[in-house]
Amino acid sequence: MYRKYLSLLLILFSFIIKDAAQDHWLYGSWDNFFDDHEYRSSLVVRQKMIGERLDAGLGFTVDTINQIVTGLDYILEYGSNPLALQPVPDIYYKYSIDHFRAFFGSFPRYKLLNFPLALIKDSFLYYKPNIQGGLMEVNGDWGYQNAFCDWTGRQSATVHEAFLAGGSGHLKYSIFYFENYFCMYHYAGLLDLKTPVVDNGGGAIYFGVDLEGKTFLDKCSFDIGGLGSYNRQRPISYDRKAGLQERASFFYKYFGVDMFYYSGGKLLLTWGDPFYRYGRYLRADTYLKLVKSKHVDTKLGWSFHNVFDKTNDNSVYLMIRVDLTSYKN
């Protein structure tokens, strides 16, 4: 399997190096993750996620606005067969001009999308690190707004047709900001089989204030907004749920706290955090930034989960990311 990927990349490199501009660069990152989800809740899967990921390759600058990138993203899950998770190819085109950029192909989602865990849980980044499709974004001093489509399955006798699409934005004015998120997961049947089509999705909006630089804290923000979900198994009508959420975030030197409180309908989201299915959920993430470096990011955290009359849980995690890229993106 590895030989097939490497052969494909070597062929691509030979054509690109021959015909592309002289400006080329190496890129890479190394991640290590330990996330212990040994919950007591019956709605949440009990599991430990431990492993590391290496993403590396070559990038080619065609001109001032066009780039081609080729590489591999490999995940090793500790204790498993090294070939259990196949490498994911990085093969994509990037277009970038003032206040607009676009990606098409198979490209890392890291730093491009940052959805609330209620909509897309953290394990999605561990095991589905690439968007395979496209993303477009407009940005400026006012913030950003993007839209994406991630194709996750071509219909066959054994594979369901599926894709995840949506968008997100962060608009700011002075100390005030507005955030919006939307995602839709389409899950169709197998080829030649009359299995039901499922449409599942949700969204969130937040209005808040960012007091960074206004207090002694390095980070200080508060917001309030709404979360919602919908689920439909065709031809049955939509099942819609919604509620309110308050969030607060603080960070000082090496220590931070993020707090979330949700109250409302029992959200049902395929890729969302299952704790929101309780309808009332309080979460507090405490964490330490052990290393403060331009190229190294670490986070040691202890999270507390409270669903009031149901159960109390906690989880711990350690994440390390090293940027190996040799150029300025």
Give structural notes.
There is one protein chain. The protein has 329 residues and is mainly beta. It has one domain (2-323): Porin. Helices cover 7% and strands 58% of the residues. The chain is built from 2 helices and 16 strands. A 16-stranded antiparallel barrel has the order 1-2-3-4-5-6-7-8-9-10-11-12-13-14-15-16. The longest helix is centred in the first third of the chain and has 18 residues, at 2-19. It is globular and about 60 Å long. The model has no long low-confidence stretch (mean pLDDT 87).
Rg on CA atoms, Å = 21 Å
Ends distance = 31 Å
Biggest beta-sheet profile = 16 strands, antiparallel, barrel
Q: Mind telling me the CATH class?
A: Mainly Beta
Named CATH topology: Porin
| Strand arrangement, major sheet | 1-2-3-4-5-6-7-8-9-10-11-12-13-14-15-16
Poorly predicted regions are: none
Structural class: mainly beta
Give the total of beta strands: 16
Strand % is over 45%
Helix content estimate: under 10%
Q: Give helix and strand order, one letter per element, not per position.
A: HEEEEEHEEEEEEEEEEE
Separate helix tally: 2
- Large-scale geometry: globular
